[in-house]
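Progress against Task 2.4 (sequence-to-structure conversion) is shown through the following example record, which the project officer requested during the mid-term review.
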Amino acid sequence: MSVRLRLDDPALLANLLDFLGRRGCAGEREGEDTIEVELPEDLNAEEARLELDLYLRVWQSLHGWTRVDVVD
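Structure tokens generated for the chain above:
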């Protein structure tokens, strides 16, 4: 399962990709302010989404609550 994320500060895309990558979520840059992230396959969709939400909240708390939106 993959999810697209959009940041309000594109300068932090590489940092977020690195952060998520260290937690088993592979990703790549898609555009100026967007990344696509593959969630761990060993989790069902609901578990993977909850885990991603947790990771994003932790990352946001470390980066001044930079806005990250899930793009469907």
